[in-house]
Amino acid sequence: MMSDIIADSLTRIRNASMRRLEHTTLCYAKIIVSILDVFMSKGFIESYKIVGNEGKQSIKVILRYDEDGRSVISEIKRISKPGRRVYKGRDELKRFKNGYGLIVVSTSKGVVSNEDAYKSNVGGEALCSIW
Fold first, then answer.
1. Are the C-beta atoms of residues 85 and 128 closer than 8 Å to each other?
2. Residue 1's pLDDT band (cuts 50, 70, 90)
3. Percent residues over pLDDT 90 in the chain
C-alpha cells in the first residue's frame, strides 16, 4: 500500500520524462486527476486518459516534449508531505521561478495553480512544484 499517492505519481512522471517515454501510467485518485488538470492547462503534459473499469482504474498520461525532443518538465517536486504539511498564504503564492514554473495548491476553491490562487485571494496547502 502506498502512503503517498501524489509523490508516487510525480516520481513516475519524472522518471518517464527523463527516459523520454511517450506515456506513463499512474494509479487513479481524484486528487491526481485534479493535479493533472492543472499540468495540462499550463502545458506541462499533452493529455491524460482514465482507463480501466470501475473497480481498478488507472490514468495514462501522455508526456510533452519540445521540438528538440527535450522534456518540457525540468523539475517536479513534492512540497507538502504526509509527515509535514506545508501551507502557504496568498502573498507567498505570487510568483514561482519568475513565472516559468508553478506551484499546485489545494485550496477551498479546489486544486489550482499558484497564479489562480493568488487571483482568487486564497491560500492553501502547497502540494507540488513544477517547472
1. no
2. low
3. 85
